Each structure stands twice: as C-alpha cells, then as structure tokens.
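RECORD TYPE: protein structure
NAME: D-alanine transaminase
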Amino acid sequence: MIYLNGKFLPIEQAYIPVLDRGFIFGDGVYEVIPVYSRKPFRLSEHLIRLQHSLDGIRLDNPHSEAHWSQLIAHIIAHNEGEDQYLYLHITRGVAKRDHAFPLGVPPTVFIMSTPLPPPPQALLASGVPAITAQDNRWGRCDIKAISLLPNVLLRQLAIDARTMETILLRDGLLTEGAASNIFIVKDEVLLAPPKDHRMLPGITYDVVLELAETHAIPHAVREISEAELRSAQEIMLTSSTKEILAITRLDGEPVGNAKPGPVFQQLNQHYQAYKATMMRGQPALS
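PREDICTED:
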C-alpha cells in the first residue's frame, strides 16, 4: 500500500506521467523515516529536515505536519512488519519540459514503506570495510535531493570493491559517506564533521551526538582532515537504515585493531536503549 497524490493504492497500480519534473529534471526532494514497533522514529526531526530540503529548492510544503503524520500513520498501518522505513518523495509536479519553475502546478507526493531489518549481528560484531573517494557532488549536499547520480556512482565504487561504504573527501577534509554520515575517534575523542552545505544533516548523526553528551563520552564537532581519518582509532558510519556500524578496514588497511572499538560499543548500546525508550513513548535519553 502506497500513497500517491491523494490516493492510497497498491504500488503495482501507481503511475506518474513522463513529464513529471522529478523524472525529467530530478526536480524534487525526499526523506527516509525509520519505523520501529510501528512508530516513526523522531518524526518531527525528519519533517523539519524535509522542510529544509523543500525550502532549499523553493517548493512549498504540500502538507502540514499534522497531515503528514496522518498519511504516515495510514501507510504504516497498511503495510506488513513492525519495523519499516518510509520513503517520502515530493517533486515540482507535471509540466512541459522547461527549466523554469512552472506556475500553478500541484506537486507530486509519493510515500511508500519497505521492511526494515535490524543490522546483522555479524556486522555489529566484526565491523565493515570501506573505501575513500574524492567528493565530486554538487555544492548543496544539505538538501536531500532526488537527483542522486553522484551518490549512486560513489556508492557503486564501494560495491565494486566489496565494501560497505565510500567515505568522501573534499579539499583534504572528510565530508560524509555516499549514503551515510561518518564519525571518527581520535585520541579517545569522538569527532564529527560540522553540519554545512557539504553534508546531509543526519538524524542519526544528531542522536549519536546527543548520546555522547548524555553519557559523558568526550566529543567535538569540527573539520576532520584526511590524515586524521586515516590514523583514526575508530571510524563509524550512521544512517536511518543502518543505525551505527563500525568501519574496521579503510582502503584495505585496518582501522585500529581491525575490530569494533569501545566507543562504538558504548554508542551502539546506548542507541539501542534509546530507541527502545522512544518506542515506549518516553523521550528521555537513557
């Protein structure tokens, strides 16, 4: 069961016109929201990020937060699985092919649900490998735009190398992963790149920093050099669908002792406890 432009229907019956600007230009934005025990995780924060993306491409939000919440609740209820992830997709709508914004055109709004399996225990225990590449994406990576060809090509580099992720570097600095945010541990301090136009402001990124603050894990948000990345004691990736994973090999070289480190272990434990607490309706970090 999906939602498309005011209708709930099976995904096999969903179609959009070929002149939709999302298809023609990639003119739209998206959002991904994890669902645990049939409850959306940090829904308000995800909708705030969606609004930021819509503002970034000068597209009016088609729904209020209350209406989004109603649509999302309906989709969750009519799809299988206690744990799901929701994909929200909004384009500038259908119009003749012209780069200029069309006037008076309703946006295309699409929502679908996909089962969300937990991170495999084997990967949590062993960590995952990653590679690096130069970040050649556009200059507004803070917008969650549907035109993801650079990310697709960069992530495929990781697949070709039989690794989990491609970590991106721009002007000698760490930005993020092709489909994740990246943290490192250097000199026993958890480090995160600052939120700016070079990276997507991750919701899980925020949770990790909140947990570090709550549990007195030394941490800082600042620019991270390539040299610091390559000499890090620990490297971690975070995303709404992968949660937190330790990266234990980078470009074929071991990270630390090539095993998930103590900071990752602490954060993953606290994250799982926080997630369970949130799903019980108790927002306090614990």
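COMMENT: The radius of gyration is 19 Å.
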